[in-house]
Amino acid sequence: MIRPESEAELAETVAASDGPLRIVGGGTRPVGRPVTGAALSTAGLAGIALYEPGALTIVAEAGTPLSEVRTTLEAEGQRLPFEPMDHRGLMNTDGTPTIGGVAAANVSGPRRIQTGACRDSLIGVRFVDGRGEIISNGGRVMKNVTGYDLVKLMAGSYGTLGVLTRLSFKVLPVPESQATLTVEGLSDTEAVRAMAAGLSSPFEVNGAAHLPGDAPRTLLRIEGFASSVAYRAGELVRLLERFGPVTVERDPQACAETWQGIRDVAPFHNRAGDVWRVSVKPSDGPAIAARAGGAALFDWGGGLVWLLVPAGTDLRARLGAFEGHATLIRADAATRAAADVFQPEPAPLSRIAAGLRGQFDPRGILNPGLMG
């Protein structure tokens, strides 16, 4: 495995490459079609480059372990707003998640419905393109972007446009208190209605999930100052009681464990089958889950549906036409090689994507074929 120890060395390596490169961060989320090429690791580019708690800004090298970023922020009572998931349990992988891998895959958790995705907290990037040139865009403060917004473009590009080397994020304070409200026994359709009621209320719900099964649970999360959380919890109980009895959990550790399990799709850990991630209108989620069969987990108020189906299932054929996107997250290499891992793009968008790849990676050496 090629492991550059500096951005300059990485740029030289890419410029001198005469064949495909398979970009590797922590190796915890092998999403996409398998890539044949020399493994290029970003692990040598690690460390916190700058942290300004008063400015709510952190800058880290791409290979920095996510745990190091979290520990640094926690020492100052701060956190990444977008609650990135840890894929290791779901994917049955080892390794260490890196902040560069989080950004490259735009990894975002339950709090996305309030604070936005990873790309919405990303305010600056440095990367090496397919020519071996070092490119910088954005900075350490939020501001209007003139010209190309490469920061947003790089988030979710899975290393196909450039190899990330350094990232700047805005961060937020950790709230003083939190509570999780639970309604048990709801059908998928009733659960989506209950989540919609909470999310459309003025009570600042920042987590809304539904776990179907033999004992279905529908969960809403609120955070903030203790007095505010207590007031909002009471109002939400009154709002949700029409769906069934409501319980309120205020213990911080219990709440954190519950939402970590949702964030990491814990119900699918150590279970056989392929895992798909489907983004739809929340009102369409129950019908999508019913057509898919298998097991489901609803997040983002029902707008994100995780599906566990038998290995090799052609989920898109099973679902038929629908408004949304289906991404194959976990499957064996043969299935990932044969399937459209990412939702096929409309022709105009596909031409734009191809044009961007041609500009940033004219030789086609960065994770070729990974996104189809």
Could you give the distance between the termini? 24 Å
Mean pLDDT: 95
* Largest sheet, strands/sense/barrel: 5 strands, antiparallel
Rg, Å, rounded: 21 Å
Q: Return the CATH architecture of the largest domain.
A: 2-Layer Sandwich
The count of domains is 3
Percent of residues in beta strands: 25-35%
Report helical residue fraction: 25-40%
CATH C-level class of the largest domain: Alpha Beta
Provide a descriptive summary of the structure in words.
The protein contains 14 helices and 17 strands. Mean pLDDT is 95; it is low at 141-146. The chain is an alpha+beta fold. The chain has a five-stranded antiparallel beta sheet. Strands 11-12-10-13 form a four-stranded antiparallel beta sheet, sandwiched between helices. A hairpin with a 4-residue loop joins β3 and β4. The chain folds into three domains: 7-173, Uridine Diphospho-n-acetylenolpyruvylglucosamine Reductase, domain 3; 177-263, ACT domain (Alpha-Beta Plaits); 266-338. The chain has helices spanning 7-16, 66-74, 88-91, 99-104, 112-115, 118-121, 150-154, 188-199, 226-240, 252-263, 285-292, 315-319, 333-338, 347-360; strands at 21-24, 38-41, 48-52, 57-61, 78-79, 122-128, 134-138, 163-170, 172-173, 177-184, 205-211, 217-224, 246-249, 274-280, 295-299, 304-309, 324-330. The protein is 31% helix and 25% strand.
